[in-house]
Amino acid sequence: MTADPEQARVSHRDRLRAVKALRESAREGRLSDLTFMSRLRVVVDARRRRDLQSAVSDLPPAGLWARAEAAFQAWWERTFARPGGIPLDLRLPPAPGRYVIGRDYGCDLRLTDDSVSRRHAMLTSVDGQWMVVDLGSTNGTRINGWRLQVQTPLRPGDVLDLGLQRLRVVG
Prior knowledge:
Blueprint: H1 12-27, H2 33-45, H3 49-56, H4 64-80, E1 88-91, E2 98-102, E3 109-110, E4 121-126, E5 129-134, E6 141-143, E7 146-147, E8 152-153, E9 159-162, E10 165-170
Parallel strand pairs: 1-10, 2-3
Antiparallel strand pairs: 2-4, 4-5, 5-8, 6-7, 6-9, 9-10
Helix pairs in contact: 1-2, 1-3, 2-3
């Protein structure tokens, strides 16, 4: 007769693995503080492996491979994902000049989204036409889905994506 692995007693190593999985999930924001504490109590009180499994079975795998996979997924979304949601209206300034858009407090138009660089893009007026240029931002600037490579004109109705922040140019 073979022993059921779920009925086996919990070893110290099993508990440590479960605590590590809980700690990493809490750190990544997958578990609230209250959920983390209640599951930690289950791990501490567990007598059998099946009790441990109930505390960690819905968590993603812990370890180097899982972190690498999560990092790749985040990179993929930053690089190829299209911004969604309702765009903010961007009203072009009435006076010609140069206006910097970014997260920095010194920018003329400040956006708080983390995907926007500190100094992301600049609007300039050239012969009465508003132009936008990317300032070497990390997540790029797009107009109507096309990534900017050079200074590009803006027209009302254009959709400007700065990282994951979406703006619609109005009047």
